[in-house]
Specification:
The chain is an all-alpha fold. Among the domains are: about 45 residues, no CATH class; about 30 residues; about 35 residues, no CATH class. α1 packs across α3 and α2 crosses α3. The longest helix is centred in the middle third of the chain and has 29 residues. The model has no long low-confidence stretch (mean pLDDT about 75).
Length: about 160
């Protein structure tokens, strides 16, 4: 037995059904206790909502809205002192950031530039073999020249050349 949908029960309680739909739903309601109970609950809620009145309040809001719409728009400009103070705060923050960055760079700078940067991880031969089987390229050199060589090899491979790791 197919029950009446909740939306149809709501329409039935509010009188939104035409005669053909109403007769089908009422025929089902005669045989189905669950649908009759649901319809009774929906009708009770609808009756409560019909009794509910909303106090609009004693204040007329529209007159205050019209008054604000008719009032001239006054643009308040900040004084030049406040504008200069804001700009100086921004400039101070930028200078502080640049100064801290410069100091951090100076403190971490090493005198021996010829020494290469330490590698984070070193790929073993088995790692390289696994990467090659997966079609990945192992990047050996952390220098800009090494990066250029890798990009050059990859673009040649895309053009039909052979990749040489």
């Amino acid at each position: 037995m197919k029950h009446v949908r909740k939306t149809d029960l709501i329409r039935l309680a509010s009188g939104g059904f035409d005669d053909g739909e109403r007769s089908d739903a009422e025929a089902h309601l005669e045989a189905c206790e669950a649908c009759r109970t649901a319809l009774a609950e929906i009708s009770a809620v609808r009756d409560l909502l019909d009794e509910w009145t909303v106090d609009a309040g004693s204040r007329d809001v529209w007159s205050s809205i019209e008054h604000r719409l008719d009032a001239p728009n006054v643009v308040r400009r900040r004084s030049w002192r406040r504008r200069v103070a804001s700009a100086s705060r921004i400039a101070a923050a930028i200078l502080l950031g640049v100064g801290v960055g410069h100091a951090a760079g100076r403190l971490t700078w090493t005198a021996d530039v010829a020494e290469p940067a330490p590698m984070i991880a070193v790929a073993t031969a088995s790692d390289e073999q696994a990467a090659m089987e997966l079609g990945l390229y192992v990047f050996d050199s952390p220098t800009p020249a090494g990066l250029f060589a890798m990009v050059h090899d990859l673009t040649n491979a895309a053009g039909g050349g052979e990749v040489t790791p």
